Every structure is written in C-alpha cells, then in structure tokens.
C-alpha cells in the first residue's frame, strides 16, 4: 500500500503558504459572522487531506467538520454556492501543489484520486446537512407564520362576530318592518329595492359570521336538498342584477342530483360565486354570459358556474380562496374563503380554472345515494 510519506512531508512545509493563497482568493462576504472561522476550517480540511494520504482518516472526522461548516453557513445566511466554489478552489490548489512534489507518476495519480474522493465526500456531507438545516429553518418559520396567521384570524373572527351580531339585531327588525310595509302597501315605490338591498346586507353579515369559530355551534341540521332547485332560487334572487347588466344566463341541470347539506350555507356558496360572476362581466362588452350546469355520477355531483369575463391570472387563482385576498376595490376578501370552508365542511372540493375565453368555478359535493338509510343531526 502506498503511504505517500514524501507527499505528506511536502504538504507540511507549505501549509501556511497554501492557506494564505486560498484565503485571499475565495468568495468571502464581509458580513459573514463566521468569517474568522473560515481559515481555521480550511486548515482542518488541509489536515484531513494529509490524513487521507496517510490512511488514518475516519468518515466521522470528515462528517464532523462538514456538519460544523454547514451549521455555520446556515447561521451566517450565506449562499451554499460560495462554499462549493471555495472548497473546489482549495481542491485545485492542493492538487497543483501535489504536482510540485517529488513523487512518482503512479503515486501522484493515486494521491489525486484519494484527494478527490475526500473532497467529494466532504462537499456531499456539507451540502446535505446544509439542506436539512435550511429545510428545518424554513419549516420553523412557516409554522410561526401560520400560527401568527391563525391567531390573527381567530382574533378577527371574535371581533367581527361581536360587531356583526350587534348589527344583525336591528337589521332583523328593519327587515321585518319592511315586510309588513310591503304587505300593507304592495305598490309602495322602491319597496322591492329596499328589501333586496337589505337581503344583500344580511348576506354580507352572514359571511362575516362564518369566519367566527363559534358560529358553527349554531348551524342548522343538514337535510336532503335538490341541487338544481337551490340554484334556481339563487338565480331568481339575483334576477334584478342579471337584468340590470343584461346577462344571458343558461342552465343545464341533472334533475335527480340530491345532496345532504345545510341549505343556508350551500345557498350562500352559490350566491357568492354567481354574484362574483356578475361582477366579473359587468364591464365587459356584450354578450355577457353565465352558464350554470350540474353533472352527476355515482359518487358526486359537479356544479360548474362559468362566465365569459376576463382571465384570472395563475398567480391570483393560487390565492383566490385565501382569507382577505381580493381584487375588488371595496372587497372584503372573505367571500371565497367562506365558500371554501363551507364546501370542505360538506366533504366537497371547490376549484377555479380560467383562460382568455371563460372562467369556471367548480364545486364537487358527495351525492346522496339511494341506500342512505337516514340523516343525522
């Protein structure tokens, strides 16, 4: 076995020269908090190369130094690419230095092979540990951000619930008296408009209440619902808005699509998406079109609500169901978030696809099977 004693002695003589040349030519950030450690790490690596040539190195020694360097690179928040450059620059200097030693050609070839293997292992251990530490760091930050986000949502839910409950009590009284006025004076001018706007306000208040965790305790029992009848009710409710901007609404229903759901909540989802569709095509040139269809299979019913409004960009679609994200000037950013919560609570899926010609919101809900024996509260 080749011992490389002449080469090891040669390296002993030139360690200071090597380190100085290496240190003055590497990529080094002046803000690196571990810049004073880098030269020491270079010396340790230089010594490990000598141990490699002397067959006295252990893999644990190499890993220990690699993990130390990886930890420092993460804590210094430095680019791993700079480390790779610096290590390979040191490798090149050592190999060039080996060419100047008085050893045989065979010894030189074997020495270079060992040096390369040592550097390859060292780089692998550093980059692997660096990646693991970075992933752990990112995960911890994401957990912190998510927890902070949840805390803010919870606080906002409590605040909005408190305020909106205060608004809803007098609103209920106003709606009741308007209905009495309409009964006593059916031809009273503007009474239909007032009633519709109050219903819209009640809908918005309900949206806010759905962001409160306590609201779920007050939800009504689920029941058997016919999907196309729910959609027809919402379209009739929105008829004034549809006529106002001259929208052509076409429907294609699977008439025997039944679901088990909370009626008010599912209606809220359909209402929100249809209102958004009307808003999307409001400023579009005619024809303005909305298509509502239901597709039934053995497991699910798919509700597609499509409009020929403007394209929703991919980056917007990725966050469109997140809370407080809105593209509307006066939007709250909770409408689609509440829709997603409701659909997921009903074991369904809501999604959106969009191109230059049309935008489709798809809602998939479990269909009521014939063998379902009964309903539970």
TrEMBL record:
Annotated organism of origin: Anaerobacillus alkalidiazotrophicus
Any Pfam family: HATPase_c
The UniProt catalytic activity note for this protein reads: ATP + protein L-histidine = ADP + protein N-phospho-L-histidine
Q: Which UniProt keywords apply?
A: ATP-binding, Kinase, Nucleotide-binding, Phosphoprotein, Transferase, Two-component regulatory system
**Source domain of life:** Bacteria
Q: Which GO terms describe its molecular function?
A: ATP binding; phosphorelay sensor kinase activity
Record flagged with keyword ATP-binding: yes
Q: Which SUPFAM superfamilies match?
A: ATPase domain of HSP90 chaperone/DNA topoisomerase II/histidine kinase, Homodimeric domain of signal transducing histidine kinase
Asked if the record carries the keyword ATP-binding, the reply is yes
Cross-referenced InterPro entries, in alphabetical order?
A: HATPase_C_sf, HATPase_dom, His_kinase_dom, HisK_dim/P_dom, HisK_dim/P_sf, Histidine_kinase_N, Sig_transdc_His_kin-like_C
Give the E.C. number(s).
2.7.13.3
- Name-wise, this protein is histidine kinase
Name all Histidine kinase domain ranges: 162-369
Q: Which PROSITE patterns does this one have?
A: HIS_KIN
Q: What SMART domains does the entry give?
A: HATPase_c, HisKA
| Name of the top EC class for this enzyme | transferase
């Amino acid at each position: 076995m080749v011992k490389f004693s002449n080469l090891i002695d040669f390296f002993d003589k030139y360690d200071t020269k090597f380190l100085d040349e290496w240190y003055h030519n590497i990529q080094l950030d002046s803000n690196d908090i571990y810049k004073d450690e880098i030269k020491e790490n270079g010396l340790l690596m230089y010594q490990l190369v000598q141990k490699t040539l002397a067959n006295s190195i252990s893999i644990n020694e190499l890993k220990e130094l690699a993990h130390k360097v990886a930890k420092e690179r993460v804590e210094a928040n430095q680019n791993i690419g700079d480390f790779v450059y610096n290590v390979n620059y040191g490798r090149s200097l050592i190999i060039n230095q080996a060419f100047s030693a008085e050893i045989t050609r065979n010894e030189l070839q074997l020495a270079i092979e060992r040096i390369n293997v040592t550097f390859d292992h060292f780089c692998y251990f550093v980059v692997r540990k660096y990646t693991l530490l970075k992933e752990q760091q990112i995960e911890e930050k994401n957990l912190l951000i998510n927890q902070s986000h949840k805390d803010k949502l919870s606080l906002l839910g409590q605040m909005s619930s408190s305020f909106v409950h205060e608004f809803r009590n007098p609103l209920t009284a106003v709606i009741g008296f308007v209905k009495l006025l309409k009964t006593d004076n059916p031809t009273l001018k503007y009474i239909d408009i007032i009633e519709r706007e109050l219903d819209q306000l009640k809908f918005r208040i309900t949206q806010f209440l759905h962001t409160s965790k306590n609201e779920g305790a007050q939800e009504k029992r689920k029941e058997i619902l016919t999907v196309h009848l729910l959609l027809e009710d919402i379209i009739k409710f929105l008829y004034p808005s549809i006529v106002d901007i001259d929208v052509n609404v076409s429907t294609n229903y699977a008439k025997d699509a039944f679901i088990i759901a909370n009626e008010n909540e599912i209606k809220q989802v359909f209402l929100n998406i249809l209102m958004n569709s009307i808003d999307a095509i409001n400023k579009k040139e005619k024809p303005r079109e909305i298509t509502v269809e239901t597709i039934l299979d053995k497991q699910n019913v798919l509700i597609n609500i499509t409009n020929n409004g403007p394209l929703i960009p991919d980056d917007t679609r990725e966050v469109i169901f997140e809370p407080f994200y809105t593209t509307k000037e006066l939007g709250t950013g909770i409408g689609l978030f509440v829709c997603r919560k409701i659909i997921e609570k009903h074991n369904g899926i809501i999604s959106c696809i969009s191109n230059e010609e049309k935008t489709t919101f798809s809602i998939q809900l479990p269909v009521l099977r014939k063998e379902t024996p009964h309903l539970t509260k």
